[in-house]
Amino acid sequence: MNINAYIDHTLLSATATERDIIDHCNQAKKHKFYSVCINSCYVPLARQLLKDSKVKISTVVGFPLGANSTESKVFEAKQAINDGADEIDMVMNLGVFKSKNYVEVFKDIKEVKTAIGRIPLKVIIEISELSKNGIVKASEICLDARADFVKTSTGFTKSGATLTAVKIIRKTVRKNCKIKASGGIGDYETARKYTDIGVERIGTFSGVEIASKKLFIQN
Q: Residue 133 sits in which domain range?
């Protein structure tokens, strides 16, 4: 298994510089990661850097809180695509979800998905803030709204992905939606545990370390 092809090579720091993005994209090309996941202001730069490669560009919407208006999320997503983004990772509105206003959560996701059409949409449900039942309900809403992926975490809360949460998501969505595990995945062994249980994408800042360990194991 080529684990590099599962990796969204992620750099979402507020202090990331243009030089950081250049280095990040070069790493993604070198290791043939699936995509880079970066803040939307750097999408035009990444498009220039990656134009002759197969590495895709993912960017975030409503990040990291998810509390933006739906209208702003739609605008942000459409602008990012116009700038060259290939995939959108949006944050679910946790406050509205915890208010049990599930219809509004559904509409929030559905309007973004409708606006971007066939562009893959990953919805971050922030599992560290949810109970088991909450993870199930959030995953069901993502499925109903036709999201392409349920994503575990932003990486900006108290904890990231867990194998337990991913298994709950998989049992809920079955094969009708993909899963992106993100947050706290920093080594090859951990990444493999997630792919072994059916995760289709790994979000990590540690892609180079994971790729290097993979080569070490193979040799």
A: 3-218
